[in-house]
């Protein structure tokens, strides 16, 4: 229970650092970087400054990915429910009208059902799409958003 409280507090502190939508979508600060060095410095600054917002975007893209690939969502739910159901037996045999099944037989059956369906759900292409969409969204935003003018003066050396 203590772990759940600490994780919840950690999540609250992370959400407290979210930037407002007005600041995140400020089109007045959008411009094309003049060279690759400027793009790198913008990305380095904006990844720190908008890190919670970028995490939220990646989370939303992950949910979108699962909602558009329902077979993968079904396989994930099947495995989670199956493991929880087998663990709920506490090592006892599952007695059915068809016979008695040990825990290791139930795990084997779960694997035999979940793995082939999992291959059909194309998790690798889904993961690669998620990585690509996240990278384009995050790095695109980070490279196009200008840094505040104060940070530009701090970087200059005399």
TrEMBL record:
Q: How does it sit in the membrane?
A: Multi-pass membrane protein
Residues spanning the membrane = 56-86, 106-139
Task: Name its cellular compartments.
Answer: Membrane
GO-annotated cellular components: Golgi apparatus; membrane
- Give the matching InterPro entries: Prenylated_rab_accept_PRA1
Q: What is its main location?
A: membrane
Q: Which UniProt keywords apply?
A: Membrane, Transmembrane, Transmembrane helix
- State the source organism's domain of life: Eukaryota
Family per UniProt?
Belongs to the PRA1 family.
Q: What is this protein called?
A: PRA1 family protein
Q: What organism does the UniProt record list as the source?
A: Saccharomyces kudriavzevii (strain ATCC MYA-4449 / AS 2.2408 / CBS 8840 / NBRC 1802 / NCYC 2889) (Yeast)
Lineage of this protein's species? Eukaryota, Fungi, Dikarya, Ascomycota, Saccharomycotina
Q: Which gene encodes it?
A: YNL044W
